[in-house]
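Format notes (please read before filing issues)

Several people have asked whether sequences and structure tokens are stored in separate files. They are not. Every record keeps both together, in the order shown below: the sequence lines, then the token lines. Line labels are part of the format and must not be stripped during preprocessing.
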Amino acid sequence: MKEFAKPFFTFYTLTLLAIMFFAACTPEDDDDLAPTLEVTFSNGSAIADTSTQAGQPIEIRVVGMGNSDNITYYSILRNGIHVLDSGLNSASFVSVRSLIRSTDSIETYTIIIRDRNFRESSFSFCFGLKPTSSWGNIRLLENIILGAQNNSSTGSFLNLSSGNIYNLSTAFQNQDSAQMLYFYDGADLNTIASPNANIDTSYFGGNSGLANWTIKNEIRFVQLFIGQQDFLDCQNDSLIIANLFPYETGKRKAKQLTSGNVYEFCFHGKYGIFYVNNVSGTNSGTIDISIKMQ
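Then the structure lines:
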């Protein structure tokens, strides 16, 4: 018995090791594939480096598909800065985005998607800057006075197209035309926002209150640190274009406003700037602003 035990044991051991070796070396299946990412222009044509003038929109289409797990992260970076940072949990998605060309000489965009196990795919492309032959015209709404929520004589809602000012009941009847509003909050203080912002329902309540609106326009805001003279000197859209921001990065409220504050805003793909001339009072007070927009 002792003569055969050792060879048998050796054969058995070698066989087991061989099985383990081949198992380890066998190519894996699709369980470790990163998600599939496809980026094209919105018309379906292949995306490529190109050039365009400042302020011009470029429409892209992003398609993501998880191969092993659901996609849980989607982001867009412009020159290394996030302009979209989105969480999701989906086997696939389609996203059409409008990229507004800024005044940077080169814009490098990177699209990133990632699945729940951190497998990642990315795609990058560049936009050059064409010289701007002429700047666009702007519209001026000067010394617009809005009343806070408890002001009984001055309306809180503004139509950016016509310059008309509405009280709550009139704004309720013209929801699609009420884009900007003013209110006072104990924490945010004097605030410019839009109907789709997160606003305490008690400020604009009742039958015509924001809670009962079926159309809620949304504006995004970014504060600018420029002086009054810069605003007054703006005779075309060059200052607006120089301060363009991706819509998703803007805030839904311009808060704690005081005289001299300046904000750029975006609504339905159009940009503008407002300057705060004066603020008076609290929840029954007023704000005086001037607006220049594309």
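For reference, the curators noted about this record: The chain has two domains: 30-130, 139-293. The helical segments are 2-25, 168-173, 228-233, 238-242.
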